[in-house]
Amino acid sequence: MREGRDISTSLAMPAAMDGTDLSVGGRLLLSLTTTPWKPDRPVDPTVARLAAGMAETGWRIRSAEPRNYLLWHCGRTLTQTRCRLVVLPRRFGRLSRVEIDVFLFAELAAARWRVSHDTAPLSSAAREARDTCCRAIASRHGWLPFEPERVLGTVRREIGASLAGAPWPRNR
Known about the structure:
Number of helices: 9
Structural class: mainly alpha
């Protein structure tokens, strides 16, 4: 290394590379595989407030068909970066409104945690706070007792089942 050269400037990465934004190719892929999230039915007020707050602070909230949702959900962008992006499923199969609202809240909360805690997994305190909000959503619909982890597992299985060729009716 030459004398006088500042190594910090040569190691600095643009935002697209440091995980806080998408590269040009990533933005293109996002526009081809997702659409802006617009629920086709009213969502629980807790979900609506969380989504609105995230959107106001610069988050991209997108939706995708099950296959593309799973590709984004398991991909590097939504697991290992601090990119302010969340991709939600567009269809939910035969799930109830409560299950869908709980899942949407959990996905939005997990995305916020990923960005604010440098991609670390949910802490036990964060998981308990998420579960408390999920129980509140469920109780407004008369679902008591309620086990958030069981419901989240059911939703993930339904999304996975769609890839096996099971047709999904549109949610109403």
